[in-house]
Specification:
Helices cover about 40% and strands about 15% of the residues. With about 230 residues, it is of the alpha/beta class.
């Protein structure tokens, strides 16, 4: 797999808190979290491969590739263990990373994540599926449509995580979503039930609670982080 240099924005000092944005976004999505948590943590908002100011590279455009990119990012900076907060596709990357490299995590915060495409509400997923098929047809004629097809493929074909696989996770975990999230509440609760000892927080709002309800979101995350046992 090609190794690329991911773009990131950093603020604050303390234990590292890495933020992973959603599909088609970049690290600026977390401006309210950067402002809130940088007083206590070294907050690092990373642009995923092919998003924001990070290069696309030539590796497959998959959740698994993004998880390996994150490992490289941490290795390049000598970060052995971090708090990891992922939103939407960023949550799926964070969960994939946690399953592969649990020893690298101090804690895991999953915001609006899903284990498989069926976790997305059907009324939301159907237009995405139609858009993906349209972009796939167009990409055969116009290379400029390829990035759009790749982004939509992430939501149509991925992730594919069996709920039973989460039983192996021993990382302190917060599962957090909006009360009107595009992820079905039953699916969010499935993730919570499947991760031993995880906490669940439902915040009034839609999928984008970190941006639209940042006060409530940050308070829930802060409560979770403050309750973590101190490192020896």
């Amino acid at each position: 797999m090609d190794s690329i240099q991911l773009h990131w924005e950093e603020r604050g000092h303390g234990e590292p808190l890495v933020l992973l944005h959603g599909n088609g976004e970049d690290g600026s999505y977390f401006r309210h979290q950067m402002a809130c948590f940088s007083g206590k943590y070294r907050v690092m908002a990373v642009d995923t491969r092919g998003h924001g100011r990070s290069p696309r590279g030539s590796a497959p455009f998959t959740i698994g590739t993004f998880a390996e990119d994150l490992r490289d990012f941490l290795d390049q900076r000598g970060l052995d263990r971090v708090h990891l907060l992922g939103f939407s596709d960023g949550g799926n990357i964070a969960l994939t990373f946690a399953l592969r490299y649990p020893a690298r995590l101090r804690s895991l915060i999953l915001n609006g994540a899903n284990l498989f495409p069926g976790g997305v509400k059907r009324r939301v997923q159907l237009p995405i599926i139609l858009g993906y098929h349209a972009a796939s047809l167009l990409a055969r004629l116009d290379p400029k449509a390829v990035p759009k097809r790749e982004l939509l493929a992430l939501m149509v074909e991925q992730p594919d995580i069996p709920p039973a696989a989460l039983a192996a996770l021993q990382v302190p975990t917060l599962v957090i979503a909006g009360t009107r999230d595009m992820i079905a509440e039953s699916h969010t609760r499935l993730i919570h039930r499947s991760i031993p000892g995880s906490r669940l927080a439902l915040v009034e709002g839609d999928h984008f609670i970190a941006a639209k309800q940042s006060g409530l979101f940050n308070k829930a995350v802060e409560r979770f982080l403050d309750r973590l046992p101190q490192e020896v």
